[in-house]
Write a structure and sequence with these properties.
With 399 residues, the protein is an alpha/beta fold. It has a seven-stranded mixed beta sheet, sandwiched between helices. The structure holds pyridoxal-5'-phosphate.
């Protein structure tokens, strides 16, 4: 599809041309196995090492603290399962109500005795109406049985930032392992993990202009660790499986570019996001932003257009080649508002009409202006035919 306006970068990002160029030789002439003894293998290994250095530089850690994985989900699963393996006498996990399924569904499986593990107790810390974490509730939940705390750095639906530094400090005081799912945060906000009380951190290549199928887990030096994928000696015995060299090299290049573009992300991308958000709030009545507008990623806005279905908005935007996401998903034939918006207490009529726009450095002002031109008439048309029609609608409970 040509000429699309792609505002769904929290779902995945386009591969940067520089990244594609960097990985191509490894699909072609540089096909050696980095574990091989011969010079050809060693040549390839040098590129894997360079990619590891680049990813480490983006996070502010040492290259030996980076383990390449297949995706963010594998990184999240590895961190949590490793902590449980390393703390066999502890049966309690703490997480939040707004995690991505990569953490949420694993914790649910562990609470139900899945994965042939003993039963675990899982505490999900609530968030407030702004999507911000209740740190006092978090502190109350910590106990001597807690094996790991996993709190995401940035929420994928709202972009809201969670207080990982404060949470990590409380964990460190009590000797509890702390993991953060930073899949949405890495490359969008500056970070220096070596200065933060974080033991493990997950990231994923396809959220920062590398291809799908490559991720990484940061494991602070000295952290107890048990591999999730057991096999050969790759990744210093921490993750078996022959390395996907083209994807690792791509990830390294993408990390280098993300570092270079961090300022742009926090100035130009944030300005485009604000332009979009302010124009839509001004032109569409009964529109409101979900989540804190201050503590948020620079590229994300989640807006509720009350009394219309988000899915219907998406379909009509799609006819104009505009790609975004909705905050409700069709499960078993009914539209279920997302668990994130429900955790924030967003009312039914607003949650159903929520749309997430997530931008990248490749978006332009012309694209944003096109969305601002196209969307308000769509909302007006949908409201006219809505069963919750504006004038028939119940009063807003969080106006
Ligand atoms: N965690 C968060 C916050 C995400 O947004 C995503 C992907 O959307 C993941 C984890 C999973 O990453 P991957 O798609 O690389 O498995």
């Amino acid at each position: 599809m040509d000429n699309i306006i792609y505002l769904d970068n929290n779902a995945t990002t386009p591969v940067a041309p520089e990244v594609r160029d960097a990985m191509m030789p490894f699909l072609d002439r540089l096909y050696g196995n980095p574990s091989s003894i011969h010079t050809f293998g060693g040549q390839v290994k040098a590129h894997v090492d360079e990619a590891r250095r680049r990813v480490a530089h983006l996070l502010g850690c040492h290259p030996t603290e980076i383990i390449f994985t297949s995706c963010g989900t594998e990184s999240d699963n590895t961190a949590i399962m490793s902590a449980l393996d390393c703390c066999p006498d502890r049966r309690h996990l703490i997480t939040t109500r707004v995690e991505h399924p990569a953490v949420k569904n694993l914790c649910q499986a562990l609470a139900q005795g899945g994965r042939h593990q003993p039963l675990y107790r899982v505490t999900q810390i609530p968030v407030d109406a702004q999507g911000l974490l209740d740190v006092a509730a978090f502190e109350d939940a910590l106990d001597e049985d807690t094996a790991i705390v996993s709190v995401m750095w940035a929420n994928n639906e709202t972009g809201v930032l969670l207080p990982v530094e404060a949470v990590g400090a409380l964990c460190r005081e009590r000797g509890i392992l702390f993991h953060t799912d930073a899949v949405q945060a890495v490359g969008k906000i500056p970070m220096n993990v070596s200065e933060l009380p974080i033991d493990m951190l997950s990231l994923s290549g396809h959220k920062l202009h590398a291809p799908k199928g490559i991720g990484a887990l940061y494991v602070r030096r000295g952290t107890r660790f048990s591999p999730h994928i057991i096999g050969g000696h790759q990744e210093s015995n921490r993750r078996g499986g022959t390395e996907s060299v083209p994807l690792i090299v791509a990830f390294g290049k993408a990390a280098e570019l993300a570092n270079q573009n961090l300022h742009k992300e926090n100035t130009e991308v944030a300005a485009l996001r604000d332009r979009l958000e302010n124009a839509l709030l001004d032109s569409a009545p009964d529109a409101s932003v979900n989540g804190s507008r201050e503590q948020r990623l620079p590229n994300t806005t989640n807006i509720s257009f009350e009394y219309v279905e988000g899915e219907a908005i998406l379909l009509m935007l799609d006819q104009h080649g505009i790609c975004a996401s909705s905050g409700s998903a069709c499960t078993t034939g009914s539209l279920e508002p997302s668990h994130v918006l429900r955790a924030m207490g967003v009312p039914f009529t607003a949650a159903h009409g929520s749309i997430r726009f997530s931008l990248s450095i490749y978006n332009t002002q012309e694209e944003i202006d096109k969305v601002v031109e196209v969307l308000p008439p769509i909302i007006r048309r949908l409201r006219e035919i809505s069963p919750f029609g504006h004038d028939k609608a119940p009063a807003k409970s969080n106006a």
